[in-house]
Design a protein that fits this description.
This protein is of the alpha/beta class. It has twelve helices and 15 strands. Strands 3-13-12-11-14-15 form a six-stranded mixed beta sheet, sandwiched between helices. Strand 1 and strand 2 (about 5) form a beta hairpin. Helix 7 (about 245-255) packs antiparallel against helix 9 (about 280-305). The longest helix has 28 residues, at about 280-305. It starts with a strand and ends with a helix. InterPro entries: ATPase_NBD (IPR043129), Hexokinase (IPR001312), Hexokinase_C (IPR022673), Hexokinase_N (IPR022672).
Length: about 350
């Protein structure tokens, strides 16, 4: 369906996408190969740290980091000494280790890291760790690819400072899901990232979190601009769904549809959408199209989880700050069979710190 030059999905098409995504979830859980990576992350059930022991958490994103000292007091996580700053370009392991040296608190014995890169989870002893599969954005991490990140940090600290430290590592979607335990029980938690990238995760059982890598879902028809964006990307044929929905790609759709324009961010595109004329209309429809597709995955997850109510810990500037975005997702969820109010969107403060803390307590 084309509305004033912008391709939109009909409700029937969206319902079919929802059902195909649900089938992919079900097939993945049964061990069948699908477009979803469906990566299980085993969360240790026994505490790694002692009661009232202080520890450190570092969240390493694509462009920013946060760190804090934390303590577990009778099941309640307390946070203090929180700081935030930009991260350097991690071209190699030397730059990464220099970053760790600068930010690690040498008075602590345990460190949890929220690592927003593509990692394959591994259990190392009693803790979760991860193998760096490939680097994203402008980082390259030469010398750390195919290495176990937490183990490498432990070895570096031992070699340089002759100090023993325990490091646990998980990626950002796993940490986001874990942060949901701050407010509800595991069965009803969904974690969703809708910003520069797109991904969802959830608890399969009490000690297993599934990283769906839902941006790779491909059982739907691409738009014509989506095909152009994919063809011009670094990895054609991969992460098709993300290229139709994520913030970094929506602006490319806009620039493709309106020749001679150059919109660089979703924040700028939101400003365009608040105006009038064709530029505003195109921007509004691109936000709506993205929201409608995101709703198909959320509706699929709702039916897969078989819970009356779900709490969705959401992260990402597109979801929270994009033009009318979260409201449109709610509207499309109802159209896709999710009763109003049965999926609650929450923005958990400091989720990038509280989530990884749960790797230790």
């Amino acid at each position: 369906m084309i509305q004033n030059g912008v391709e939109m999905y009909t409700l029937d098409e969206l319902q079919q996408i929802r059902d195909r995504f649900l089938k992919e979830l079900t097939d993945s859980a049964s061990g069948r190969k699908t477009s979803l990576l469906f990566i299980p992350n085993t969360i240790p059930q026994r505490p790694i740290i002692a009661e009232n022991e202080e520890f450190q958490v570092i969240s390493i994103g694509g462009s920013h980091m946060k760190k804090a000292r934390m303590i577990n007091v009778r099941g309640t996580i307390e946070i203090y000494n929180k700081t935030e700053e930009k991260v350097p370009i991690f071209k190699d392991k030397d730059i990464f280790f220099a970053f760790i040296d600068r930010h690690i608190d040498h008075s602590i014995k345990h460190l949890a890291i929220n690592f927003a890169q593509a990692i394959q989870p591994v259990i190392r002893g009693s803790k979760l760790d991860g193998i760096l599969i490939h680097a994203s954005k402008e980082h390259s991490f030469d010398g750390l690819l195919e290495k176990i990140i937490g183990e490498q940090i432990e070895r570096h600290i031992k070699s340089k400072y002759n100090k023993d430290i325990v490091v646990a590592v998980a990626n950002d979607i796993v940490c986001l899901v874990l942060s949901g335990l701050q407010m509800t029980r595991y069965e009803v938690i969904i974690g969703g990232i809708v910003g520069t990238g797109v991904n969802f995760g959830f608890f399969l059982d009490s000690n297993t979190i599934i990283n769906i890598e839902s941006g790779n879902f491909d059982k739907f028809e691409q738009t014509s601009t989506g095909k152009t964006v994919d063809k011009d990307s670094n990895k054609p044929g991969e992460f098709i769904f993300e290229k139709e929905t994520a913030g970094r790609y929506i602006v490319q759709h806009y620039n493709t549809l309106l020749e001679g324009t150059h919109c660089a961010t979703t924040e700028a595109l939101s400003q365009v959408a608040q105006g009038e004329g064709r530029e505003a209309y195109v921007a509004q429809k691109l936000f709506e199209r993205s929201a409608s597709l995101i709703a198909t995955q959320m509706a699929g997850l709702y039916h897969y989880k078989k819970q009356k109510n779900l709490v969705c810990a959401m992260e990402g500037s597109l979801f929270w700050k994009g033009w009318n975005y979260s409201n449109m997702v709610r509207d499309y969820l109802q159209k896709l069979g999710v009763p109003a109010g049965n999926m609650q969107f929450v923005d958990i403060e400091d989720n990038s710190l509280f989530g990884p803390a749960r790797l230790l307590i």
